[in-house]
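Cont'd.
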Amino acid sequence: MPVDRSNDDEIHALQDRAKRMRETALHMAFSAGSNGAHLGGGLSLIEIMATLYGGVLHIDPKNPEWDDRDRFILSKGHGVLAYYPALVEAGFFPSEDLKKFEVNGNYLPGHPIMNMKKGIECSSGSLGMGLSFGVGVALTGKMRNKSYHTYVVLGDGECDEGTVWEAAMSASHFHLNNLIAIVDQNQLQYDGVCSEIMDMGDFKAKWESFGWDATEIDGHDIRALLHAFRCCLQTPVLKPHVIIARTVKGKGVSFMENKKEWHHGSLTQKQYESAIAEIRGVQ
Amino acid sequence: MAPLTPLNARIYSKLGQRGSFSLAIEEVAAQDEELVVMTADLTTLTGLTRFKEKYPGKFLNIGIAEQNMICLAAGMAKEGKNVFVTTYANFLAMRAYEQIRIQLGYMQFPVRVIGTGSGLAMGMSGNTHYGIEDIALMRAVPGLMVVSPADGAETTKVIHEAAHYPGPVYVRLSGVMNTPIVYTEEYPFAFGKAVRLREGDDVAVIATGTMVHESIRAAELLKEKGISASVLNMHTIKPLDTAAIRNACTRSNLIVTVEEHSIIGGLGSAVAECISETAGSPRLLRIGIPDAFQKVGDYRYLLEQNGLSAPQIAEKISITFGPGFRS
């Protein structure tokens, strides 16, 4: 099937956005110094977040509590290196504020704290709660006949948590087709390869058997991401949707890619410069 | 809400705390468009069958998934729903502890967590179903209010007040049907404000939940032995009415706490924390469930095994306050 080129400009703009975000993420991680940051699972999430905040979510940064806005919940709370830059790009707070990342007493720590004025809908960090929370938000939307959609980003390692599946069960039970989960399937968790730590078997089939409409795509392909999100919004299927986005942990920085050691880490000056050079050289 | 009279006090007593909750929540539902009541597969056992039939649009069964229920409730509360979650106290306070901590304590969503069958009320069901650590766990969560009503009538007041409270609340319900009556007429109820039910000079008994009634009876028995005991209903364990405790300290030679909860971490511990920082405070006797799992039996058997009947409470106090007592 020929590729639809009608939205090339939009896709290029999102790719540029992702590139800026990846650079910002590295800068944030470097500025965190020895505190370190969750680099691997932040970098794997960049294109997903760029696409959501740049081309999918109905939001108004000038009115962050707009009643009809789409709701976004970062269930894998350690994904802040992609989340905070996405919020900056969308205009929820100035890039200057990123200097507050992992600074004592400030509002941008290593896991997000609910802050509606800054567009942060939910505190997270302890895994396995965000999808349940999203079910509550989406269910209320249904009860009120609201048009908003609820988006929840999970990690694939996070899906070891039983509560993810309690949530999955309840979402299909309540026919929440206004709920879209995205799994950042970077295939690595803290201790190593997900399938070796805890084999999830046929992951897509699991979601489907829980009553979800499931799609697998390349989570770094913005065209594919955009298409997948738009399919979720257009399909008449009365099921919740999950986009299983295959990604690379540490994406974009060759010495980090697919290395569990970079789940959380600190960058030396030399590593930082090398990473930035690589990202600027790409594309 | 109907004013409290000796007649409806008898109705609440007959229903017990759980049944009184189900009556009160129907009254809340009649006035509150945003109310949602959730259960984790205990509709009937939480006395909500009639509620479900009367208000199907305000009722959700989440299945046997307490953790999911708490997060779901938080998500709905975020969107402006007034959510009451219900199931057995032990499953809420323990199975869903971290969800309560993060979703309700940390984010401060005003969800009302109603734990039924707490303490030893689950009787023959055994230790898996007893709620003997819930106060300890719940009061350790920052920003969570912890309340334990004394009887059916007070349960209705707690539920009505909780429906308007701006933060998250844990309500601990215990006892069985035909629960003893503490209140037969209207009285001012406010969270965080203990109710002085009986005056006395020698001993100040601070009790919560079902032990309020036992303590009043114990005080009557002590009077026969020439010991004058006051009784304070500490229905709110957090925030604790420290002013009432300090006041009791200045008026009595012995402070006694009585609770249907483990001796570790409950009302006795909360009071100990307060009076240990109060200069010149009197001695403290903590009466509660010893740190052990139980030999299973019915509710009355369990109370007596743990020394929580009025005569046993009076006996412990009179031994402590007996000859040679030094404050």
